[in-house]
Amino acid sequence: MDERTVGRAMWRFWSLGGEVRALAGATAVRNAAAPDHPLGTFLCELRTEEIAPLLAGPFRRVLVDPDTPPAAEAQLALHDWKLDVQLHLALPADAAVDPPASAARPVVDDAGWAEVRRLFRIDHLEEDARRGRSARSEAATTAAVAVRRGLGPGVTYLLAERSGEVAGCVATWPGEDGVGLVEDVFVHPGHRHRGVASELLRHAVTHARRRGAPCVAIGAEVGDTPKHLYNRFGFRPVAVARSYELTTGRGTA
């Protein structure tokens, strides 16, 4: 699986449930459920150096791929768009995965999404502390969950339970063109180092493969430890992907 294939699977996942429009030199995605969230309104497939007209729009994030003109990326950096780097990994079709040993229930109602939000809030606070930045607002967590809920029925969120409480969550998508995706793997701090994350991965990969995705991709922060878990599980590094987020005033590139 090559860099372009995995990158496309990533942005297609985040476009689900949203409006996808072809612009002059880029593709725009807008999710009405949370348009102000960086994953709710973004640009991808950037193919022009003349990016000032594009950045005059409402976009909060720009994804960079191997076909993005270097000068376009340079303009984002010049005008203080913040670089975010993610490791993309892929599980080959011939990689064997043990069947899950326990049950996981799909998120199908408000109560299930409330559990997802509870886990996301913990994740957000941990991430902000790890990066040495101020804790994001409750509204930001709500918007992040709204983006996920707006992805539609093609994406399944699963909850793992241990000792009568929700221990973790994961998202799984059978994808397109034979490439599925696993996203949002998170385990509650009280249930870590007990195999919950590996079990969630088994559920997510099995779910995607049963729905037609022989290959499965996943993303990981380059500076965080889950990348090692994914690699031990069988995911192989494909590429380091870059994106730029608008965190200050409107860019003027």
TrEMBL record:
Residue runs in coiled coils: none
Pfam families, sorted: Acetyltransf_1 (PF00583)
Residues covered by the N-acetyltransferase domain: 114-253
Record carries keyword Chloroplast: no
UniProt KW Ion transport keyword: no
CDD domains in the cross-refs: NAT_SF (cd04301)
Keywords, alphabetical: Acyltransferase, Transferase
Database matches in Gene3D superfamilies: 3.40.630.30
Protein name: N-acetyltransferase domain-containing protein
Species the sequence originates in: Pseudonocardia adelaidensis
